[in-house]
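Q: For a teaching handout, I want to show students what a protein-ligand complex looks like in token form. Below are the inputs, and the small molecule is flavin-adenine dinucleotide. Please produce the holo structure.
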Amino acid sequence: MPKDHGIGASPKRREDVRFLTGAGNYTDDINVHGQAYVHFLRSDMAHGTINKIDTSAAEGMPGVVRIFTGADFEGVGGLPCGWEITDKNGDAMKEPGHPVLCQGKVRHVGDPIAAVVADSLEEARTAAEAIELDITELPAVVDMGKALEAGSTKVHDDLADNLCYDWQFGSDTETTDAAFKSAAHVTTLELVNNRLVANPMEPRVAVGDYSRANDEHTLYTTSQNPHVIRLLMGAFVLGIPEHKLRVVAPDVGGGFGTKIFHYAEEAFCTFAAKACNRPVKWTSTRSEAFMSDAHGRDHVTTIELALDKDNNFLAVRTDTKANMGAYLSTFASSVPTWLHGTLMAGNYKTPAVQVNVKAVFTNTVPVDAYRGAGRPEATFQLERVIDKAARELGVDPIALRRQNFITQFPYATPVAVEYDTGDYEATMAKMEELMDIGGFAARRKASEAKGMLRGLGVNCFIEACGIAPSNLVGQLGARAGLYDAATVRVNATGSISVMVGAHSHGQGHETVFPQVVAEMLGIDEGMIDIVHGDTSKIPFGMGTYGSRSLAVCGSAMVRATEKIINKAKKIAGHLLEASDSDIELKDGQFTVAGTDKSVAWGDVTLAAYVPHNYPLEDIEPGLEETAFYDPANFTYPAGAYACEVEVDPETGKVTIEKFVSADDFGNVVNPMIVEGQVHGGIAQGIGQALLENCAYDENGQLLSASYMDYAMPRADDIPHMASYVVDHSCQTPCTHNPLGVKGCGEAGAIGSPPTVVNAVIDALHSGGHTHVSHIDMPVSPSRVWAAMNGQ
Amino acid sequence: MYSFDIQRPTSVGDAVAALGTDEALPLGGGQTLIPTLKQRLSAPSVLVSLSGIAEMKGVCTGDDGALCIGGGTTHATVAKEASVYPGLAALAGNIGDPAVRNRGTIGGSLANNDPSACYPAAALGSGATIVTNTRSIAADDYFQGMFATALNEGEIITEVRFPVPEKSAYMKFEQPASRFALVGVFVAKYADGVRVAVTGASEEGVFRWTEAEAALSSNFSADAVPAAPSGDGMISDLHGSGAYRAHLVAVMTKRAVAAAS
Ligand SMILES: Cc1cc2nc3c(=O)[nH]c(=O)nc-3n(C[C@H](O)[C@H](O)[C@H](O)COP(=O)(O)OP(=O)(O)OC[C@H]3O[C@@H](n4cnc5c(N)ncnc54)[C@H](O)[C@@H]3O)c2cc1C
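A: Here is the structure, written as tokens, with flavin-adenine dinucleotide included.
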């Protein structure tokens, strides 16, 4: 019988009641009395020198409060990057300035040149049209290869070139070269990991408010991590101490990574609210989102796989160019390095793995973490090259993977990380069962009878979640700790508020976190609420990304709840006149072991706050505990994915007929929510594989700047539910966190893109198009047709 | 959006009068015009809404047997009520999404003449007549290239008359993002010959594929469809090359012939 409450149960998401009835409180729902509105005048050129910005005509326009340009921010810091990468020659990465408003140059389409604050948004827009810009257009640097050529136009004149860093990691060159020399077979693949726009349903919003009465700033913002924004903006940009700055991220309508970062508009609204002595609000339009939200992915890679004569993997070597865009976004530098290179071993016991990454500046929107961040890029390369190798060698792609699986844990990879636990054979077997691999030949026949080509794609994946041990990431260049925090506040009548550093923007924390506390205390989940998203209410935690919420913040919550239980037992012991070591807590009752003497949860909590009969000499009144939790290691969710596609040989259109994921997330608290996370992640992976393409032309103009040209996955692009099976029954619990959980938020987006592409290649080969060894994503109809026809 | 005045006339005469003012534009379903206004790409001082004009709405059969559709009739209404012309009803039922179909109108679509829109293929492929407040225009004369038509300023499409074919079908290969036609082919078989109109493909907008018309007029079968036309002059963009579009013209024509009913 499935559980109906606590850990392992699937109660419906309590937050959905407000989301689905229009009662949510999103940032754009927040209106502060007397607020003005800001419109950003953004560059329509990819690259240019600003000669003059004449705001004089605009300043007199109706409703205008004040117009700001880069000059107003000269005394203010730039937007900081949170992770320093060390180049292979020992130098620190190049860190160009990132002003709040452009200074001297525009560097990408969408770069904010000026900001008009007015009584209404329409007045601000109209006034912005009256600003006279004198900008000399410069050649744009778009292609990473060209950007690295000697003599290329430079995105930042104060740097030597467009190279941010040249990073090498993993096995040394001697070892790697030797492995390749001894190989019986080497498979090489060049591929692109396509640039994506995150497209959360809710665009970004910022409202700055300032109180002259007590010199306090408040920023309401669409953020995944309000404390991180408070620290970055307060300490590095505006110089506001934490106790004078409150950052509130209320209901947030999806993040997918792009709401982690500290953005210019947040700093602007906070700054302008004080400068204008009026609250200032900005709501991004969808068009602005395309050119100002950090983009994702955008890697160009050559990967080589060396195998011995028995098809054992000997070595992997990669050479990647990673697009940073025009500036370093908050965590941009870490994505192609530590979040990517450390995963290049995959699920395989390859003895030598060497990763080479050049990060490159271009005249494009900054690129940063997007669901999976670095790990999808690693998985895609590795699982594509393995598939190509299997085809070249004429061996079964499942058998080839199996043969090379890591089977002993813990396992130290050649790329620094140590996998604590896993069972890749189990997820592979589960996938084969759910996919009915044996029935594929018959299904292919049936497709062929309709004139369609059918392909089967399989792959594995591993990811590192629960970011991260602070001392480790500190050594790797992170400029922050990556612990998290929770405060459990038990109220007098026994209800509980849990203040958490994690931030829920769709994940369902408000439902899941209480399940854990309720299980530990044996009380009803309805007595427990989660408080998140307001720095004035929650302890200093690092927020939600990297599938870390339950693994890191949830662990802090468990530790805090354990402290509560310990103290409550002392109170219960006092009330029951027994030693606290004899007290047992079960189903919300404190019992003296081996007796029928007991006291209820509510009596104990009341005693804590009405301490008339209370051991005041031993313990303080009240029942509130905080814990900070710094993980001992990353967690390593892994799995095996498969899909079947049909390809229309006349049009090149790909349809996904069936998708199966077999994941190992360790323990699962709420299966329904886990399945929802995986469904959504796979939908995004299918989007990347088949549809999404953020494209620039050679002049740095964004070609896919709206939904007319940027294709998001829709319901009918995803297989019907009956053919869309997400399984998480294989569970090897994480060995180092109290819940044994690994994280599930990104798995679908990490595992699924190679599955789809592998299946398409398989379909084309079955149709005789054996010259097609790869098609870059998105595998659109026109690209499939071109590949089939050698165009 | 810039500010504008809005007028809601209830007759074609009043609408035409209202459009006489400077910088006035007719507003159909607003599915194209409103986004344009929101982006400040157009700045009319007056919008004359046609949605309150009863005489411009609805679907009926004329004395000559033609299907007559009021210029202000929504795609959803055509999808539901044009059952005598199943190829056309199916086309209307697959434009955009339900919200677009419940507001967007045939007059607005034909006036806009987007090179990837569906209705232009049906009108040209049926040899329809576009009726305005001043005249009747044959489809062959009406479409004049991307976003260009024979309409004069202030002229309103009040009705579109479609001769009903023996058989017809529209095959739309969707552009993956917008789901407009990357290539759409409308095939209609009349007693006196077959018409084939192609949308989405050409830099000149909707056009008749005359080679296919000739071949199909003598043998209405998918096998008779000629080899793909040249890719020269076909749209080449993020979603497909001219050569790909040209290839799809032939594929979609075959499929339309096979599906025609
Ligand atoms: C999300 C989305 C998806 C879409 N998908 C498709 C698709 O798949 N296929 C497709 O064909 N279309 C598609 N469209 C366009 C849709 O069909 C529009 O309805 C149509 O292009 C315009 O019709 P409208 O009535 O909304 O015109 P409006 O937007 O009101 O007007 C468009 C233009 O026509 C003028 N106009 C309007 N009515 C008349 C009239 N009676 N006489 C003269 N001039 C007039 C206006 O002044 C304006 O210049 C889509 C639109 C959207 C928003």
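A: Two things your students might notice: The domain at 31-85+96-138+205-283 of chain A is CATH 3.90.1170.50 (Aldehyde Oxidoreductase; domain 3). Residues B 25-33, 50, 71, 95-96, 100, 103-105, 107-109, 111-112, 114, 117-119, 156-157, 179-180 surround flavin-adenine dinucleotide (CB under 6 Å).
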